[in-house]
Amino acid sequence: MKRELKDYGLITLKGIGMGAADVIPGVSGGTIAFITGIYEELLSSIKGLPVALKVLISSKFNIKIFWKELNGNFLVALLLGIATSILSLAKLMTYLLVHYPVPVWSFFFGLILASVWFVLKDIDKWNVPRAVAMVLGIIAGYLITVISPSETTNDLWFIFLSGVIAICAMILPGISGSFILLLMGKYTYILTALTDVNIPVILVFASGAIIGIISFSHFLSWLLKNYNGLTVAFLAGIMFGSLNKIWPWKQTVESTVNAQGETVSLLEKNVLPGTYSELTGQPSLILYAVIMIIVGFSIIFIIDMAAKRLKQIREKQ
Q1: How many Å apart are CA 184 and CA 159, to the nearest integer?
Q2: Element (H, E) at 264
Q3: Contact 251, 268 (CB under 8 A)
Q4: Exposed (0-12), middle (13-18) or buried (19+): which is 137, by Cβ within 10 Å?
Q5: Residues near 261 by Cβ (< 8 Å), separated by ≥ 6?
Q6: pLDDT tens digit sequence for 192-247
Q7: Is-contact 31 174, C-beta < 8 A?
Q8: How far apart are the first and last CA of the chain?
Q9: What are phi and psi of 302, to 5 degrees?
Q10: Is 197 exposed, middle or buried (0-12, 13-18, 19+ CB in 10 A)?
Q11: How many domains does the chain have?
């Protein structure tokens, strides 16, 4: 696929969106990749990493051949966006979630709600198996959001396992890798390890993530190639079911104190806007919520229009 500089700039922007989503428990970077049209290419590139390494060795370390086999320009542009987002937007997103939770969650609610619609409209023909797959996806997505976080061991074998499972979740639309870490009781632990530059923990977690993402990308790519309609319907269902986690008005049922001495929610339940005001003493901000839902919804339309426009330009060239 021949790309120009502006195309890679757009990929970097998509990476920024993925990075911003991945640091928030409840929002999936895989969702952003899915709705921005780079999901299958991302899976294919990850899956091709071992092959690219074999090509590098067999070609006597010919970097040009290796880079082409790796789809290096795409991966670098995407990783640049993800890294930029994590380093620059993570603290901002955390601040906004603490001080303006209703508008932020409303924005993501609209974003993912529109995403589900756009994903489903690409399914050319509906039948009973695909409908069942979507229902199962909805159930799975919902159940994942209501599981209570647990206390787990800090042994390195479990850190490795956490890396494997979290990265698999991270590339699944609708399932947040950071939320899975929260469920496994390792979200704060891993963040603290990154902040404190705990090299053994970081290396073990990263090793699990690398093995997990390469293995899981093969499986997902196979599913999308052989059972595209069923897989897309199931993934759309997961995204829809995960909306339970992103409902803007929540009551904290269980909380804990993190390594920085801050009180953070462990378990929440959704409430109506009026109930939210009664329980928290905070305004429900319904007008702001509606505006942010519309903004989130509209962004998906803008992304879709931009993608179609770029496709038309390429076809004319």
Answers
A1: 10
A2: strand 263-270
A3: yes
A4: buried
A5: none
A6: 787 777 889 889 998 998 888 888 888 887 887 888 888 888 888 887 887 887 78
A7: yes
A8: 13
A9: -65, -45
A10: exposed
A11: 1
Return the structure tokens found at 205: 């977690």
Which residue type does 77 have?
A
- pLDDT-derived band of residue 94, with 50, 70 and 90 as boundaries? low
Please state, as a whole number, how many other Cβ atoms lie within 10 Å of the Cβ of residue 86.
19
Neighbour-count burial of 135, counting CB atoms closer than 10 A to its CB (0-12 exposed, 13-18 middle, 19+ buried)? middle
Task: Record the tokens describing residue 43, joined without a space.
Answer: 């899976």
Q: Is residue 163 within 8 Å of 205, Cβ to Cβ?
A: yes
Distance CA 272, CA 267 (A): 17
Tell how far CA 184 is from the center of its chain: 17
Give dist(CA 107, CA 165) in Å, integer.
Answer: 27
> For residue 111, what are its two tokens?
């974003």
Q: For residues 194 and 202, is the Cβ–Cβ distance under 8 A?
A: yes
Domain ranges, residue 140: 5-316
Within 8 A by CB and 6+ apart from 278, the residues are none
Q: Which residues contact 72 (CB under 8 A, 6 or more apart)?
A: 66
Q: How far is CA 12 from CA 5, 79, 108, 140, in A?
A: 11, 7, 20, 31
Q: Which of 77, 80, 87 is nearest to 6 (CA)?
A: 77
